[in-house]
Amino acid sequence: MSSLRPTIDFLLHDWLQVEGLTARPRFADHSRETFAAVLDTCERIAREKYAPFNRLVDTEEPRFDGEKVILPKATHEAHDAYVASGMLSAAQDYEEGGMQLPYAVEAAASTFFATASVSIGGGLLTKGNANLLMVHGTEAQKAVFARNEFSGRFSGTMALSEPQAGSSLSDITTRATPDGPDFAADPLGPRYRLKGNKMWISAGEHELAENIVHLVLAKIPGPDGKLIPGTRGISLFIVPKKLVDTEGRLTGERNDVALAGLNHKLGWRGTTNTLLNFGEGRYPVRGAPGAIGYLVGKPHEGLRCMFHMMNEARIGIGLAATALGLAGYYASLDYARNRPQGRPVGLRPTSRPETGSGASAAGKDPAQPQVRIIEHADIKRMLLAQKSYCEGALALLLHCARLVDEQHTGTPEAAEEARLLLEVLTPVAKSWPSEFCLEANSLAIQVHGGYGYTRDFPVEQYWRDNRLNMIHEGTHGIQAADLLGRKVVMEGGKGLALLAARVNATIERAIGQPHLAEHANALAQALQKVGAATKAAWATGDPAEALANAVPYMQAFGHLVIAWTWLDLLLVPPATDGAAAAEGRSRAARYFFHYELPKIGAWLRVVETRDPTCATMPEDAF
Ligand SMILES: Cc1cc2nc3c(=O)[nH]c(=O)nc-3n(C[C@H](O)[C@H](O)[C@H](O)COP(=O)(O)OP(=O)(O)OC[C@H]3O[C@@H](n4cnc5c(N)ncnc54)[C@H](O)[C@@H]3O)c2cc1C
Question: Which of 234, 294, 420, 608 lies at a CB distance of 3.0 to 4.6 Å from 302, suitable for a disulfide?
Answer without folding.
Answer: 234
